[in-house]
Design goal:
binds alpha-D-glucopyranose, 4-stranded antiparallel β-sheet, about 20% strand, about 30% helix, alpha/beta
Length: about 550
């Protein structure tokens, strides 16, 4: 096996450092806290951490608004701590990728301060300015609930500046070669420290051109190819993961031509359809989207996820589907944000262990490498009374003590309140009690991860639907070299008996997850599937 393709076999774990573990009791999670929890992550079966931005930042967008690309946010620790984190992670065979925010900076970044202070500053051209707010009118607004325009007025220098996200996040001007060079320097800095790659934030928006939606432009792809070339030449083996919230046909170009752009890309369109198909209790939506998902080349990989730190975005569904998703999954208007749903995995799936594990069965067995969002492995809840996406970014619940084992700081100094309701509070949901209970969600997730790791077919194999008349069953086969795995998911809340024609094979098929045997008789595999049951047969 080719081990340079490690990312194809890897299970990823997304961590918001501020939320994970507070080692110095100031109420904010930090890098040393992360180090203390590396054994936990390792035990779960994770191969690679993805850290949300850890750079100095006014935290108007939880660190996606960077004010210095070359340091660590003071409450998270120091560069030395970061180096130690890398060392400790690598010692345990864990890799670490971090967010790379190319598209914009904070308005507190010295470049922007200099740019707005003086129109003749060399930094003026680091950003996109205009006398008119009517330029690039075809570009959509992403943060619909807060922003009215992609142009912000700068009183000081009396021009508009371009921003695709919050007004406090001015877009960098990639037509300026100096900006292009700066960002390569930033990458080098962190790669030299030893990071294993980047999750590149918001990549479709780097360039602007009149008469276009200012997304996925050829100029953007050309620059991203420069980045990949730079990595290939100077840092082979490190990876680039694209955040491009687009339809499959628009994501494909981010994988480049013969591996000259991203190694990996998130599969945004399949994510809402996993929830849809579980709610509708049939596979139709999954079949439809897989039909539009081309196979990738050998060095590329989809990144699969159920939830992340943002709202569950409904950009990649039809308007009708969006309305339906909102009705079904976000009945309270406070659960909605922009074009999405700001809730966590467990509450979205009614805190139902079987539904959650069915979703995980799809996440871990469909083509791609899975990402787990911190806390979802124990079924953490959300808090819709908190602003913006904060409700899904609350402190990790380690135990049932008053601070949930997150911090010893007085509760009023913890950066966000710990979830405290009757269903998802620290007493009901925490790592410690789930580790102690072999029937807990944590154990189910851990078993699934460890089972998956024994079979490269999940990360590397071909995908094909199994012909099954019953639409409540999502059945497919994953094949890699001589490994063949038949996956059956009963999407519905009722029992179904299915018969699949199959060549007789001498021994039984064995469920990787439970060790139970299933025999083929008279060239037929007959399965009685209980509600929401999943089988991974080898
Ligand atoms: C990405 C991030 C999101 C952030 C935005 C702007 O979409 O996932 O959290 O707000 O970029 O940087």
């Amino acid at each position: 096996m080719d081990h340079t393709l490690w990312y194809k076999d890897a299970v990823f774990y997304e961590v918001y450092v501020r939320a994970f573990h507070d080692s110095d009791n100031d109420g904010h999670g930090d890098l040393r806290g992360m180090i203390e929890k590396l054994d936990y992550v390792k035990e779960l079966g994770v191969d690679c951490l993805w850290l949300l931005p850890i750079y100095p930042s006014p935290l108007k967008d939880d660190g996606y608004d960077i004010s210095n690309f070359y340091d660590v946010h003071p409450t998270y620790g120091t560069l030395d701590d970061f180096e130690e984190l890398l060392e400790e992670a690598h010692k345990r065979g864990l890799r670490v990728i971090m967010d790379l925010v190319l598209n914009h900076t904070s308005n507190m970044h010295p470049w922007f301060r200099a740019a707005r202070a003086n129109r003749n500053s060399i930094f003026r051209d680091y950003y996109v300015w205009s006398d008119s707010s009517l330029k690039y009118r075809d570009a959509r607004i992403i943060f619909l609930d807060t922003e009215e325009s992609n142009w912000g007025w700068d009183k000081k220098s009396e021009q508009y500046y371009w921003h695709r996200f919050y007004a406090s996040q001015p877009d960098l001007n990639y037509d300026n070669p100096a900006v292009q060079a700066e960002m390569l320097k930033v990458m080098s800095f962190w790669l030299d420290l030893g990071v294993d790659g980047f999750r590149a934030d918001a990549v479709p928006y780097l360039f602007e051109r009149e008469g276009t939606g200012c997304e996925n432009l050829p100029e953007t792809h050309a620059y991203l190819k420069e980045i990949r070339k730079f990595i290939n030449e100077r840092y082979p083996g490190r990876i680039l993961l694209a955040e491009a919230n687009q339809w499959p046909e628009d994501i494909i170009p981010y994988f480049g031509d013969g591996g000259d752009e991203f190694h990996m890309g998130f599969h945004f369109p399949i994510m809402p359809r996993i929830f849809m198909s579980i709610r509708k209790e049939h596979r139709t939506q999954l079949v439809w989207i897989m039909g539009r998902t081309p196979a990738l080349t050998e060095t590329n990989q989809w990144c699969m996820f159920l939830r992340n730190h943002d709202e569950l975005t409904l950009e990649m569904v039809t308007e009708e589907e969006r309305e339906w998703m909102w009705q079904e999954f976000a009945p309270d208007p406070r659960m909605r944000l922009n074009l999405g749903i700001r809730r966590r995995l467990a509450p979205l799936l009614d805190n139902d262990h079987r539904k959650i594990m069915l979703a995980n069965s799809l996440l871990f067995s469909l083509p791609g490498s899975p990402v787990i969002y911190y806390g979802d492995e124990i079924g953490m809840g959300d808090n819709i009374s908190l602003h913006d996406r904060n409700g899904v970014r609350t402190p990790m619940q380690w135990d049932d003590s008053s601070s949930a084992g997150f911090s010893k700081a007085p509760s009023q100094s913890v950066y966000l309140p710990i979830i405290d309701d009757d269903t998802y509070g620290r007493k009901q949901v925490n790592v410690k009690s789930q580790q102690d209970n072999p029937y807990s969600l944590w154990h189910s997730v851990r078993n699934m991860i460890h089972a998956r790791k024994k079979y490269p077919a999940f990360g590397r194999g071909d995908f094909q639907w199994i012909d099954c008349e019953n639409e409540a069953i999502a059945a497919y086969v994953r094949t890699y070299e001589d490994q063949v795995i038949y996956v059956f998911n009963n999407m519905s809340a009722s029992e179904h008996v299915i018969s699949i024609p199959m060549q007789d094979i001498p021994g039984p098929l064995t469920d990787i997850l439970t060790g139970k045997d299933y025999y083929i008789q008279d060239q037929t595999l007959t399965l009685k599937m209980s509600p929401r049951q999943y089988l991974w047969l080898v």
